[in-house]
From TrEMBL:
Its cofactor is Zn(2+). It comes from the Bacteria. Keywords: Metal-binding, Oxidoreductase, Zinc. Pfam families: ADH_N, ADH_zinc_N. InterPro entries: ADH-like_C, ADH-like_N, ADH_Zn_CS, ER, GroES-like_sf, NAD(P)-bd_dom_sf. Belongs to the zinc-containing alcohol dehydrogenase family. GO terms for molecular function: oxidoreductase activity; zinc ion binding. CDD domains: benzyl_alcohol_DH. Residues 10-360 form the Enoyl reductase (ER) domain. This is NAD(P)-dependent alcohol dehydrogenase. SMART domains: PKS_ER.
Length: 364
């Protein structure tokens, strides 16, 4: 079928809105008509020279829309169902079967497309050349996307599909890191390093978890003000001697910290701001080697990597929607919508910090 898609053809080029051909859903696949898709910093990874995903590519992995067709063998969902799309997983490996699909044994080939490796690409441009697709199991910077039963979450048809897409990744990652991976306890202290969409989701989740001290750290004063509105009890600008400042703000050291920056120096200060037996989670791989003084972990501190908030999307996303409807997880305050044709404006505004969470809306 003919679709419109935002295609990235080189690491330093703008996205181009192109007409393309999308294959019909194959065995186990679902065709989703996209009504809104969040723009996440992860969607910038294909701009990294040498990155695993092959260009040209259709990115986008926070899609929301309506199921329009089912491939052979698909059961448990009907055409016309409203869905959110999240990451893909196999459902049958040990990690999937024990409730950890973000650590699926085939996570990377399922979510990082690479047609040079011989994988099938369901999108072809108008010159019949392959375009990398199924980015995080969807490639939803388009009017339509292919997904599977594993990476769609049915939702109430009364919900605004141009709003809810970010729950499929950034909001899920930040909230899941707090509620699942770190399992923040009531009455505890939490530090959130970085207040983009993931960090602000973590702030909201920490309040839901009952943390009594929530410290948000950033260089952007407007985002720190937003963090205060969403539940942070303290805010501070990142700078020299951050670890000491965090220990002071948390009265001896934080029980938990979450880094969303990927900046090694900030991570090291976050570790320094932990109490004995404190835990820091990293949702973004450090951009450079993380070097720590030899005695840093001697007091029982833990450093752990976190992928997709250790979430089962079909469980966490409905919980986040319910919290939002109770006004306890107001993620909609972070969203700004753009037409899909304005994707380059959305990218610029996200990078500059003008917009926390852009959502792209394909023309209908």
């Amino acid at each position: 079928m003919e679709i419109e898609a935002a295609v990235l053809r080189s690491t330093d080029a703008p996205f181009t809105l192109e007409t393309a051909q999308l294959a019909e859903p194959g065995p186990g696949q679902i065709l989703v008509e996209v009504h809104g898709v969040g723009f996440c910093h992860t969607d910038l990874l294909p701009r990294t020279p040498g990155f695993a995903a092959t260009l040209p590519i259709v990115a986008g992995h926070e899609g929301a829309g309506i199921v329009r067709a089912l491939g052979p063998g698909v059961t448990g969902i009907d055409s016309g169902t409203h869905v959110l799309m999240s990451f893909d997983s196999c459902g049958g490996c040990g990690k999937c079967l024990t409730g950890h699909p973000s650590y699926c044994s085939s996570f990377w080939p399922r979510n990082m497309p690479n047609h040079s490796a011989g994988t099938h690409d369901p999108i072809r441009d108008m010159q019949d050349n392959p375009v990398s697709s199924r980015w995080f199991g969807q490639s939803s910077f388009a009017t339509h996307a292919l997904a599977t039963i594993r990476n769609v979450v049915p939702i109430d048809p009364r919900l605004d599909l141009t709003l809810v897409g970010p729950l499929g990744c950034s909001m899920q990652t930040g909230a899941g890191a707090i509620l699942n991976s770190l399992a923040v306890q009531a009455g505890s202290s939490v530090v959130v390093l970085g207040t983009g969409s993931v960090g602000l989701a973590a702030v909201m989740a920490a309040r839901v978890a009952g943390a009594t001290t929530i410290v948000a750290v950033d260089r952007n004063t407007e985002r720190l003000a937003m963090a205060e509105r969403l539940g942070a009890t303290d805010t501070m600008e990142a700078g020299v001697d951050l670890g000491r400042m965090l220990r002071k703000a948390t009265r001896g050291g934080a029980d938990y910290a979450l880094d969303t920056t990927g900046i090694s120096e900030v991570i090291a200060e976050g570790i320094a701001g932990l109490c004995s037996t404190g835990v820091i989670g990293l949702v973004s791989a450090p951009k450079t080697d993380l070097l720590l003084p030899a005695a840093t972990l001697a007091r029982g501190k833990t450093v752990t990597g976190i992928l997709e908030g250790d979430a089962v999307p079909q469980r966490l996303i409905p919980d986040l929607i319910e919290l939002w409807q109770q006004s306890r997880f107001p993620f909609d305050e972070l969203v700004q919508t753009y037409p899909l044709s304005h994707i380059n404006d959305a990218e610029r505004d996200m990078i500059s910090g003008k917009t926390i969470k852009p959502v792209l809306v394909p023309a209908r």
